Amino acid sequence: MAGRRVLTALATVAALTLAPVATPPSATAVSALVMGGTDQPDPEKLGDYLPDVHTTFLDPFTACSPTDCDLEGVVYPAEFWPFPQWGGLEGQKYDRSVAEGVVNLEAALRRQYLEDPDEPVVLFGASQSATVVTFVKRKLATHPEGMPAQVQIVLIGNPNRPNGGLLARFAPLTIPVLEFTGSGGTPTDAGMPTTDIAFQYDIAADFPKYPLNLFALLNSIIGIDIHGDYLLNRNGYTEAELQAAMQDPANQQIHGDTTYITIPTKRLPLLAPLRQLGVDRNATAVTEPLAALLEPTLRVLVELGYDRGAGYGRASGFGLLPRVDPVRLTTDLVTAVSTGLRDARAAAVAPSSRQGEPPGEPEPKIQQMSSAADHSDVEPAPVPERDRRRQSEPEVADDADETDDTTDQGTTQDEDDSEDASVDEPDPSDASDAEGASDEPASDAPAEPAAA
Q1: Gene3D superfamilies from the xrefs (predicted)?
Q2: Which of 284, 343, 421, 431 keeps 20 to 30 A from 384, CA to CA?
Q3: Is residue 441 part of a domain?
Q4: Segment among 146-150, 211-215, 324-328, 392-396 with least mean pLDDT
């Protein structure tokens, strides 16, 4: 009898020892649905595109951390008929390509919801796919059923940036033969944290408001390569410099649920032909001082083609002529000439460390040239997501607290430099439904494009 009890006790101990131990569920992972730009249909076949997007744009601004993020590429046509480099005559027209991208992205979102309704999802769009994400954001804002509740968005080179995006400038116009529609601005009232990143003078995301300003128009056209260089060469920035520029409160502003980041260009595109001529003719000793002399003044003239004081989140179509404060313009031009003389002397004295590139370029700034009325509803820059994730670490300082009123105009003044902008591509939507070019904030987005 006693022996039986001993055997029973041993069996019980063995069973408890060998039984699987229940572990508490891990924190909900984050999924990122990543799309490419025009001529980048499948992000998973673009080499290091997914990890580069993650490191450069998702980790700093979303919950998609280096150790807890599932990256998934979303495929779509990414074509723009009839341009040879973007699909040619066999490719889809722009609106149809975007419409198919909307269908595919919504399907990926539903799949995520069915797998885990509580899992946070990050959407990433670049150029044409930023337009795709714009349509999906509009849909989620009005019909969230069957979709993830926690959605964060990152856009680069967004053609639908309300003040600057080419498709927002053109709204509600369309080019029928191209099926290229001005589909209006990305909404800012959907309650989805969104980060919209653009390089100054990007032709798709920072197109001039006043295209009759030929300095601004030519500058955008000559600088078309800015639009495709957010990841490869980062438009002359090192990775560390780019991160610092994106986190700089002077380059940020908030409108509704969206944080706008505008990265100053290091060099004015308008002077690129002069600089290249110096490289080709081995005459940089002449062309570099000349370019340094002209750049500050030309930046002042180029920036007259923009209205940065209105805020990047306010819908702003094309205009004819800007309102100019003659006293301020005169002061800015005098300062620019003085700065140009100083920079030209420095470029002439200091030989270039790299052919065609003057050493010691000053830190670029975006100067506010607009004489628009005060827009006090532009909020200060937020605490970066990466800092919020690490705020428990004592060494992390909350630099974002210093951003109080610095982003009221979305820019800071530097008498030695000028402003910025950015640009991108167009998106589909019925012309009658697309957003107008008023100066009121964008809210209701145009009707979703019909699937191709």
Answers
A1: alpha/beta hydrolase
A2: 421
A3: no
A4: 392-396
DSSP-based three-state secondary structure for 396: coil
Q: Residue 206 falls within a domain, yes or no?
A: yes
Average pLDDT of 203-222?
97
Q: Tell me the residue ranges of DSSP E strands in 37-120.
A: 70-73
Residue 77's pLDDT is 97
Q: What does the pLDDT read at residue 400?
A: 42
Active site residues: 127
Q: Is residue 105 part of a domain?
A: yes
> Which SS3 state, helix, strand or coil, does residue 121 take?
strand
Mean pLDDT of the chain: 81
- The token pair at 293 is 């002399």
- Asked whether 381 and 259 are in contact (CB, 8 A), the reply is yes
Q: Amino acid identity of 398?
A: D
Rounded (5°) CA angle 257-263-265: 155
Domain total in the chain: 1
Domain that holds residue 217: 30-267
Torsion of CA 167, 170, 172, 176, to 10 degrees: -90
> CA neighbours within 13 Å on the CB side: how many for 223?
33
Query: What percent of the chain is predicted at pLDDT more than 70?
Result: 71
Contact 194, 258 (CB under 8 A): yes
- Asked if the model's pLDDT at residue 374 lies above 50, the reply is no
Q: Would residue 201 count as lying in a domain?
A: yes
**Residue 212 to residue 33: CA distance in whole angstroms:** 39
Provide the CATH number for the domain around residue 198. Answer: 3.40.50.1820
**Contacts for 347 with CB less than 8 Å, ≥ 6 apart:** 288, 289, 291, 292, 358
Which residues does 49 contact at the CB level (< 8 Å), separation at least 6?
34, 36, 40, 43, 231
Cα→Cα distances 258→64, 150, 195, 422, Å = 17, 15, 6, 16
**Residue 189 CB partners (closer than 8 Å, separation 6+):** 141, 256, 257, 441, 443
